[in-house]
Amino acid sequence: MEKIVLVIGAMLMAFGSQVFAQSNKWETLNSRTLTLMQQGLYKEAVPVAKKALSAAEENLAGNHPDVVTLLHNLASLYEALGAYAQAEPLFERILKIREQVLGTRHIDLVISLNNLASIYEAQAKYARAEPFYQRSFQILRNSFGPDHSDLAIALNNLASLYQDQGQYASAEANWKRSLEVAEKTLGPDHPNVGSTLNNLARLYVEQGKVAEAYPVCKQALEVLDAQVGTQHPRFAAAQIEMGRIHSARGDYDKAETQFEQALKVFNDTEGMGQERVGHCHLYMGKMYRAKGNPERAVKSLKQALDIYAEALPPLHPRLVETWYELAGAYEERGMEPEANEARRSAQSIRGDRLKADSP
To answer: Residue 61: pLDDT above 50?
Structure first.
């Protein structure tokens, strides 16, 4: 799902946005953190960010704005690395501080609510994510009314969450309403409109509604090509969906071209460990199975699992799906022991997930 970032003025405590009033140790460390982040050196930035936070906490109150900013920087680093379990308590702490300072309905809570909900969603903790997305939506609606561009992003978030849970009717209603608001407030050629169109196309693909998906995805590609270009991750995300559409139609050569082009963009812009690279390999694996080439399917699906092992939490539903696909590919190659082992891996994750979800 192509997520759209919500930015509300000065509330966004993004990297580089905080200017400290006094020269101090945590300011120096934070500057180093930001430099490393801008270079894409997230792992190297984490220990520096932790030292900055520790230095600030030794000298400032726990709810001081500098502490909140440093918490946000560290949490955002963990999120960028896919270390959601480490990011979660930090985002929870930030929200608690801001609620104590601002109250529970202030517009400046929206970013914190979305950050926390996004972390829960990334870990497939959907029931925990929804109330935070709903709160964010209500605050935005009460503050700006029903036709504001930020409200379109909040609707995107809810639609994504519903789609992840298979609640397709609710997802479609929110995607369409988001699209309506985005087109009205941003214009029909805005990149956010293109990404929302792609998300709607993805919903149709997942329901097998290929005829409905194709024109929507085609429009998404046209908008994104014009606004961000063909080497942008947003355009590549739409190429994935077009690849899935071609695959569902049996146009495997066209599908493979779309997947390979998207894979190149993601590798060039985000690095090999990103979740969307895993998605490319997963969908290519499915395509090769449909094409009758289980050998290449096995290779793609194993690549997907290697990436997901780094990019996703261990009980994520995507892992179950990929292990089952790999089991099918092994079976088609006559490799029954390997198929059974892959199937057991899928069943083990599913069983552990059911236990984790039980009260």
So the answer is: yes
How far is Cα 216 from Cα 32, in angstroms, rounded to an integer? 44
Q: Which fold has domain 1-104?
A: 1.25.40
- In sequence order, the 6+-apart residues with CB closer than 8 A to the CB of 140 are 107, 110, 148, 150, 151, 154
Q: How crowded is the C-beta side of 286, counted as CA atoms within 13 Å?
A: 19
**pTM of the full structure:** 0.82
Summarize the confidence of residues 248-258 as an average pLDDT: 97
Query: Which segment of 1-15, 71-85, 109-123, 273-287 scores lowest on mean pLDDT?
Result: 1-15
DSSP assignment string, 291-358: HT-HHHHHHHHHHHHHHHHHHS-TT-HHHHHHHHHHHHHHHHTT-HHHHHHHHHHHHHHHHHHHHHH-
For the chain, give every residue range classified as CATH 1.25.40.10: 1-104, 166-271, 288-359
**Superfamily name and number for 288-359:** Tetratricopeptide repeat domain (1.25.40.10)
Measured in whole angstroms, the distance separating CA 98 from the mean position of its chain's CA atoms is: 24
Put residue 125 in one of left, alpha, beta given phi > 0 → left and psi -120 to 50 → alpha.
beta
CATH 3.40.50.11540 for domain 166-271, yes or no, is no
How many whole angstroms from its chain centre is CA 93? 21
The pLDDT of residue 4 is 58
Four-residue CA torsion sign, 313, 319, 321, 324:
negative
